[in-house]
Amino acid sequence: MILLGNILLLLASLFYFGLFIVLYVESKPHGDGLMGYGWAVILLNLGLILSMLLVSLLIAYKGGLNWIKGSVWTKFGWTSLVVLGSLLTTAFCALMKYEPGPLPVFFKVISSLGPAIMPPLLILSGFVLLNPGLLSMFPHSFLKWPLLLLAFYGAIGLLSGIVAWGADAIRQQSISKIYQKQQYSSNQQRMLNDIDSCDVLKNMVFILVFTDANQQTEIRNRALEKIKTHPDWQGEMIRLIHTEWAPEVFTFLASNDVDDLSRFTEPVRLGFLQMSVVIRKRIRSSTHPSHFYKGMFNWDMEQVLKTAERFRTPVVNYNKEIKEIREALNEPSEWEKPAFDCVPALDRYIRKTEQN
Q1: pLDDT tier at 249 (50, 70, 90 boundaries)?
Q2: Domain range annotation of the chain
Q3: Quick one: which H or E segment has residue 275?
Q4: What is the rounded distance in angstroms from the CA atom of residue 203 to the CA atom of residue 206?
Q5: Is the pLDDT higher at 305 or at 168?
Q6: Is the pLDDT of residue 328 over 80?
Q7: What number of helices (H) and strands (E) belong to the chain?
Q8: What is the full DSSP assignment across 129-180?
Q9: How many C-beta atoms surround the C-beta of residue 192 within 10 A?
């Protein structure tokens, strides 16, 4: 057991010398060399940790820690924490050595010395505790000080790293929120500019998307005000609903009132039929399986059903037209289509309106 432990200590020493060469002998890495440096540090420290953990187990089993109260596994548990804490701190210090950004204060102070001093101290302590002849030469009160120093080094290092990285995460989150807010404001201003610059006599259709009920209040109200500057905005809606712009018109009608509901009864009916044409054309024009996805028609169908419900009266029912839209989703394609998510909602509406 002791021979095996000494072999493991020799192996740990080789890992340490390799780490020492990478950190203090080789020149500072650049470019792709930084990746190689990082992997070398990780693998060498991993070998060092595994070797020293096995040595700790042998020390506890052979009685090298009899001056510590508890079972063999209790002693191994405590020494394992010392090994892991000190060597993980060493690894972090080594990995952060060439880090250009802000580093934890503790790592800045010891990153140049910790990896050089702490592993040899750990290996030498293990060598003394493993070999009874050497162990008998030192009083127990003397042996505890290297372990306490290693424990302090590991605990403070890991704690400072956790605190520093936690603070950095909060800082990054704060920066992200500020960026998102700026992006939100920039996007909002872009939409307002699009609305203000729109010539409603020619391009009213392009700002209908801003009139959905879920749109920001300022943007929606600005778009509604702009639309109604058209001298016959309702007539323009009726014209557009008979074209491929029908989806945009339904975005408006699903969320907003019109001045003359009866004026839209038949145009809405024809608009639903136009939607079936739009759907069939979109399916036929798809040239790759990736063009199809389950939520492909979700938004358009949501606006269609909202509009159908808003304009439905005891004497006006759009059941037949919704059926036509539902059937359009079955338009064949040379590519495999998914089961569209909007189908159940259409089926429920059809059943409901048939019962009424």
Answers
A1: very high
A2: 2-179, 198-355
A3: helix 265-284
A4: 6
A5: 305
A6: yes
A7: 15, 0
A8: HH-HHHHTTS-HHHHHHHHHHHHHHHHHHHHHHHHHHHHHHHHHHHHHHHHH
A9: 16
The answer to whether 264 and 233 are in contact (CB under 8 A) is no
Tokens 């020492």, residue located: 20
Give yes or no for a contact between 55 and 30, defined as CB atoms under 8 angstroms apart.
no
Give the span between the Cα atoms of 147 and 79, in whole angstroms: 8
For residue 339, the model assigns a pLDDT of 92
Structure tokens at 132: 């009874």
pTM (two decimals): 0.54
Q: Cα dist. 210→147, 155, 182, 256 in Å?
A: 68, 56, 20, 11
Structure tokens at 61: 């089993």
Residue whose C-alpha is closest to residue 232's, from 222, 244, 240: 240
pLDDT in tens, 189-222: 888 999 999 999 999 999 999 999 988 899 999 9
pLDDT at 223 > cutoff 90: yes
Cα 214 to Cα 299: distance, rounded to the nearest angstrom: 12
